[in-house]
Amino acid sequence: MSFKIFRLRYQLVKAIKTSNPSCKLFCVGDDWQSIYRFSGSDISLFKEFENYFGFTVKSKIETTYRFHNPLISLSSGFIQKNPNQAKKELKGISSRKNTDYKIHYSITDNQDDTLAVQKIFNELLEFDDQIENKEIIILCRYGFDIDRIKNEKSIFQIDKINEIISYSIKTKEGEIKRLKALFMTVHKAKGLEGDIIIVLNCNSGKFGFPSEMSDDQVLNLLLSEADQFENGEERRLFYVAMTRAKEKVYFVTDSSYKSKFIAELEVENGQSPNKKCPNCITADVVLRKSGIAKNGNTYKFYGCTNFLHGCDYTTSEWLNK
Length: 321
Description:
Strand order of the largest sheet: 3-9-8-4-7-6-5
Distance between the termini: 71 Å
């Protein structure tokens, strides 16, 4: 059986096994991709399998046929920041091409990813001759994140019913080049794959990624202690998002409100457009406000992007004292 297991399902399987002594149980699962905690899935049933079902022989599957380095190293290091996850060393098929990743910084406000997605599409159409034949999937934490892609200037054709976004450009030679992208939540995309993956709204906030609503205190009381790591479920969900890619994954974030997950990836990649906060180290110091004071001097006020998570570092700069 596939191991998306809940307590009631466990009790059913246990009853069947108990009433049939000769019954053998074969299970397949990946605790790195356990993302149904919100509906009662308990990771301890996987991590402590032998405690529930008795003597167990485990075999690890550590070869992936979908994605490759550098994404293997990036995603494996990311998910294993949670010490409760099983330790594994994934390997790809050496004959396959690399799977690259890129953090794309949105140049609009943190509720709008339109120009960011357009820029990514333009890049794909310009540098990939085969892009029109490839599968592109736009992923998000919540279904309503499709509204982050506006269509005020008819930049895209958005079919919300079929979850398809179409885009086209006209080259200097007059040729029309087109591409289409599927749009879905990360939960819906589990088990699927695409050549190019674009992850929207990698920002901090209540409905960002990680979602600040995910670690519900009531749910914590109902589930075991095996899954109490901060943002543990969200980390697994983010891992699922990035590992849907066969060729490349783009993370779209607002540089002033980037999520803690993006800050982690920047540290690994050495990529950031801003100075790091001297207090919390991983977050950035970004411009919050600028203006002219009563004395006529121009000022700029900077703050840490991690302010939603408790860092209160701020600093000011006077330009014409």
